[in-house]
């Protein structure tokens, strides 16, 4: 070193993995300054490894491993490592609870002149209540200073997909004006936090809301794993051939441990195709029993018959009307009415043209199907005309004499 050279020692405390520009300026002489770039190497690193997201099936087990790496120049440092949960309470047990440590003290190994410490947090049975941010913290002390380094990991879960099925609760065939009830059954895997199950119905026009006057929706809890919803409405012919289905979503009722790390699950039921049948018309027939001769008796018999496709479930009732009014025994003199289910009879004891000749004897048949509010009617009209017995007269236009032949 010559007299013109001056050595200066500079001590700085710098953070690792950062780049610094240091400018050196010589004072008292007309000398240029110089900028020196200094990069500080990383001597301490900490990292946590774990799964991205876990399915919540209550049998899942997984681990979070925290790794602390020290460069050779800090090997003389005393290290303390520990895990804390979302509640910020350190874990300190290998056996107590569903989340435990593999060891109470970190494990140390040498890797390429560096010292590596690890400590693992084991989840034996994943629960929804365990979601949140887990922090691995390391305290380093070299007897002159202490440094704390941390690494965070967020545990998130996916709610199991519910099982959703839909069915028709109305037995037998569905006719117009029938009340139809559709059922939606949902089976879930219960969470260990407050949960909410939302069931929605969809029809030919999309989402069905509680404000839709046509429909009535009721939802309830059967037990801890089963939920049920019903959709009730009155069938019309416009519903024929339409599809209905339900969906169910399951998730937490609110945030857990201050985070939104539980992903809800949604499932859709099978389609229900609604078939609506028209209530058919009955057949009506009127038969005369006897010949309508003045002074004679006569019966008009009306019979109602259900169509073959509903004959096993339908009933038909018949009644006589006169001038639009139900016929009774007091309606016309000398006429009685007998109703017997699908048959009704008008009995005339002695026909009288002035009283009984009418063209508005009407028979009405009504077809009914159990539990179906809609009925169908058909009618037939009889025009009653009476006949009069003929009078036979024999007479001659000329005198008659004995022994003569006349033609």
Description:
The chain is mainly beta. The chain folds into 3 domains: 44-158, Immunoglobulins (Immunoglobulin-like, Sandwich), CATH 2.60.40; 163-274, Immunoglobulin-like; 283-382, Immunoglobulin-like. It is 1% helix and 47% strand. The chain contains 1 helix and 30 strands. The longest helix has 4 residues, at 353-356. The protein is rod-shaped, with a radius of gyration of 50 Å. The N and C termini lie far apart (185 Å).
Features:
single chain; 407 residues; mainly beta; Immunoglobulin-like; 3 domains; 5-stranded antiparallel sheet; 1 helix; 30 strands; 47% strand
Count the domains: 3
Largest sheet: 5 strands, antiparallel
CATH architecture of the largest domain: Sandwich
Count of extended strands: 30
Task: Name the beta content range.
Answer: over 45%
How would you classify the helix and strand content by structural class? Answer: mainly beta
The radius of gyration is 50 Å
Blueprint of the fold:
Blueprint lengths: L18 E6 L9 E6 L4 E6 L4 E2 L6 E9 L7 E7 L14 E3 L5 E5 L2 E10 L8 E10 L4 E10 L1 E2 L4 E6 L10 E9 L7 E9 L2 E3 L6 E7 L4 E9 L7 E11 L9 E2 L1 E4 L3 E3 L8 E7 L8 E8 L9 E8 L2 E2 L8 E6 L2 E6 L4 H4 L4 E8 L7 E7 L25
Parallel strand pairs: 4-12, 12-20
Antiparallel strand pairs: 1-2, 3-5, 5-9, 6-10, 7-9, 8-9, 10-11, 13-14, 14-18, 15-16, 15-19, 17-18, 19-21, 19-22, 23-24, 24-28, 25-26, 25-29, 27-28, 29-30
InterPro entries: Ig-like_dom, Ig-like_dom_sf, Ig-like_fold, Ig_sub, SIGLEC
Family: Belongs to the immunoglobulin superfamily. SIGLEC (sialic acid binding Ig-like lectin) family.
Keywords: Cell adhesion, Lectin, Membrane, Transmembrane, Transmembrane helix
């Amino acid at each position: 070193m010559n007299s013109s050279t001056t050595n200066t020692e500079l001590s700085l405390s710098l953070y690792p993995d950062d780049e610094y520009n240091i400018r050196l300026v010589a004072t008292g002489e007309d000398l240029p300054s110089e900028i020196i770039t200094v990069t500080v190497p990383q001597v301490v690193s900490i990292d946590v490894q774990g799964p991205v997201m876990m399915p919540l099936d209550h049998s899942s087990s997984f681990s979070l491993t925290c790794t602390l790496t020290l460069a050779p120049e800090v090997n003389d440092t005393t290290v303390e490592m520990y895990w804390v949960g979302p509640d910020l309470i350190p874990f300190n047990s290998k056996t107590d609870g569903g989340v435990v440590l593999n060891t109470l003290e970190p494990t140390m190994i040498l890797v390429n002149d560096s010292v590596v410490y690890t400590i693992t947090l084991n989840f034996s049975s994943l629960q929804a209540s365990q979601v949140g941010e887990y922090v691995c913290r390391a305290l380093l002390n070299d007897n002159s200073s202490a440094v704390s380094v941390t690494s965070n990991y967020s545990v998130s879960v996916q709610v199991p997909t519910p099982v959703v099925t839909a069915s028709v609760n109305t037995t037998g065939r569905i006719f117009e004006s029938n009340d139809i009830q559709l059922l939606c059954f949902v089976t879930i895997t219960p969470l260990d936090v407050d949960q909410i199950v939302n069931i929605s119905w969809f029809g030919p026009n999309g989402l069905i809301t509680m404000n839709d006057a046509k429909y009535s929706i009721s939802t309830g809890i059967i037990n801890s794993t089963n939920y049920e919803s019903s959709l009730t409405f009155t069938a019309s012919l416009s519903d024929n051939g339409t599809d209905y289905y339900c969906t169910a979503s399951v998730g937490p009722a609110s945030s857990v441990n201050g985070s939104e790390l539980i992903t809800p699950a949604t499932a859709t039921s099978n389609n229900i195709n609604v078939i609506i049948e028209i209530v058919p018309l009955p057949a009506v027939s009127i038969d005369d029993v006897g010949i309508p001769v003045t002074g004679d008796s006569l019966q008009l018999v009306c019979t109602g018959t259900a169509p073959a496709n509903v004959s096993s479930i339908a009933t038909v009732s018949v009644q006589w009307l006169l001038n639009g009014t139900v016929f009774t025994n007091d309606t016309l003199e000398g006429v009685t009415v007998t109703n017997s289910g699908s048959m009704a009879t008008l009995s005339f004891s002695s026909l009288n043209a002035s009283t009984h000749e009418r063209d508005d004897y009407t028979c009405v048949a009504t077809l009914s199907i159990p539990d179906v509010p809609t009925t169908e009617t058909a009618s037939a009209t009889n025009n009653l005309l009476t006949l009069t017995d003929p009078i036979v007269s024999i007479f001659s236009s000329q005198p008659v004499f004995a022994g003569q032949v006349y033609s």
